[in-house]
Inverse folding.
């Protein structure tokens, strides 16, 4: 299943924290100005810091997730042969191969159940007792089960937040022309179009390309 939580949070914060739409810190004449549709390098820097802090809180500390799709469970039974450890190993490998090719990968479970009591030590080494493997844990957690922080949604969101701010590098549409560069101004149409561009690029990087940056 696809986790739309980071995309939803990133897009909503992009809209709310765009300087000049709801608020600008610092403003042109005062420390805080509301709805002036102006921007500046200082305000983009301040709003980027706020954006980074809120992304860390919502995605890393709270861990907001929005899954779209259905769960799929795959159960595989492995019966090792007492007379041949190689046969049990082949069963085990085949079950893992079937599991690795299952869809969707985020919520696929593998249950390997050893049937038969009279197995050799070699058999037990290949398949012992009941083994549960959750593919999502293999991708996002270390072998002890401790959760690893994925900073990709946060860092990608911050970079795109800065680069796609209307009026900083470009503004589409501009006030006088269809495309303006470095105008340090914005408008409602430009914010809407830049939000769509932000959503498209962010969704491609996070959901389609599955970019991950793990720490820990």
């Amino acid at each position: 299943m696809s986790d739309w939580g980071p995309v939803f949070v990133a897009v909503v914060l992009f809209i709310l924290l765009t300087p000049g739409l709801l608020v600008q810190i610092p403003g042109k004449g005062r420390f805080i100005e509301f709805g002036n549709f102006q921007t500046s390098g200082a305000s983009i820097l301040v709003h980027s810091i706020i954006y980074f802090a809120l992304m860390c809180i919502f995605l890393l500390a709270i861990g907001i997730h929005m899954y779209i799709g259905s769960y799929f469970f795959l159960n595989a039974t492995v019966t090792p042969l007492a007379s041949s450890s190689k046969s049990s190993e082949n069963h085990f490998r085949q079950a893992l191969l079937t599991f690795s090719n299952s869809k969707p990968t985020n919520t696929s479970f593998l249950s390997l159940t050893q049937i038969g009591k009279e197995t050799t030590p070699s058999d037990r080494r290949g398949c012992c007792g009941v083994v549960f493997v959750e593919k999502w844990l293999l991708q996002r957690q270390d072998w002890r089960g401790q959760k690893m922080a994925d900073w990709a949604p946060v860092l990608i969101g911050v970079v795109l937040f800065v680069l796609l701010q209307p009026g900083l590098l470009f503004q589409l549409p501009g006030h006088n022309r269809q495309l303006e560069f470095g105008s340090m101004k914005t408008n409602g149409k430009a914010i809407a179009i830049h939000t769509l561009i932000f959503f498209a690029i962010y969704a491609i990087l996070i959901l389609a390309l599955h970019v991950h940056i793990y720490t820990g």
Summary: The CA atoms of residues 85 and 124 lie 9 Å apart.
